[in-house]
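re: ur msg from earlier - yeah i can do the arginine complex, just paste it... oh wait u already did. ok heres what im feeding in:
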Amino acid sequence: MSNKMWGGRFAGGPDAIMEEINASIDFDRRLAEQDIAGSSAHVAMLEKTGIVSAADAAAIREALGRIRGEIERGEFSFSRALEDIHMNVESRLSELIGPPAGRLHTARSRNDQVAVDFRLYVRAAIDGLDAEIKALQLALAEKALLHAGAVMPGFTHMQPAQPITFGHHLLAYVEMLARDRGRFKDARARLNECPLGAAALAGTSFPIDRTATAEALGFDRPTANSLDSVSDRDFVVETLAAAALCAVHLSRLAEEIVLWASPQFGFVRLSDRFSTGSSIMPQKRNPDAAELVRAKSGRIVGALTSLLIVLKGLPLAYSKDLQEDKEGTFDALETLSLCLAAMTGMIGDLEPDVGRMRAAAGAAYATATDLADWLVRELDLPFREAHHVTGRIVAHAADKGVGLEELSLAEMQAIEPRLGKAVFSVLGVENSVASRKSYGGTAPANVTAAAEKWLAALKGA
Ligand code: ARG
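and the outut:
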């Protein structure tokens, strides 16, 4: 049997494989809510402009409401033969009210319909993600305030570099997430134009009011070019790009949690709620949630790459290739949401082992830069020379297997005779971090102020 929505010029129905490759209902049923919202706005406009009678418009509106209820209650039966969400809804409409249902598709095409549905979906997803990223920022900033003065080693090249504070480290992620929110916000602003009324590709001969449908659906304005309207998926690319970078940020934090929670580091303890055991090794506490957040960034980056490749070289206007924009996007945005929730839970529960972090910061000569800076400040040595002198002192301490502060003054003076005992004041890690008062530096006073500022901003807005 030929398709009941478009089968007029067909004698036979599609091959089973054709239906298999063509139907999108298995995934685009998730656009049901948006599809009905778009249709409701469209029919209201058709009525207002006199294109459809008030009686038909009322019947359509009422039936759309019933269909929404059926879908919400899981009573709607989706059909593959009807290809996609748009035709499934329209077919049910005609079952419910007969011929007036056929008037809904006046001055519209599935091409602008799917474009508007997907914009509505992505816009709602962005709003949800913004709230979730903010929740993670809050968890990080709260933990940072609590541990603004907890000293830990800061790393470069994964080698202990200089002492920093745990709060400072956490606030670095608050900054990254703020940029992520900014990127989503930018994407949302450009997304917020309404393609409905572009019809198949060329616009329509009916006297429609595109501004009315744009407003009814919360868009800032209608899109300006009908060809661009049905072929543009930039809003998805931008959103996935923001999602990919956010996921990459989460993967970096996840990796640090994995390292910190290992017994070799022992910097943090993950809660039972976010750890798993081993089926064979009873002693294990595995950071599976963090590992999965680290890994799931792959599929989010993958969704961005796939969509870019779908779009590359695609001529105007609509091609069925564009149906491949959805599955990866649904998956990527949901995955990011799950990762954010898991990370927020992990951070909230995270218990730093302040003693171990401090001990690690004290080891490995992390205050060597402080010693070099002291030589510059107090003895007026050029920094390069101070660096060299400090290197020799570190080498001596390393030979003896002791920390810098455990060397005697005489031992240090053997290398640089002008050194005085005041130098010991900069060899401790607390003094080191407290001295890093430059703007954006790790001094606990800075970290407290920055955490408080973030908390006020996050709670205020
Ligand atoms: N399911 C289609 C999609 O997701 C809807 C648009 C179909 N348009 C068409 N002319 N066949 O892109």
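cool cool. The CA atoms of residues 136 and 343 lie 7 Å apart. ping me if u need the other ligands too
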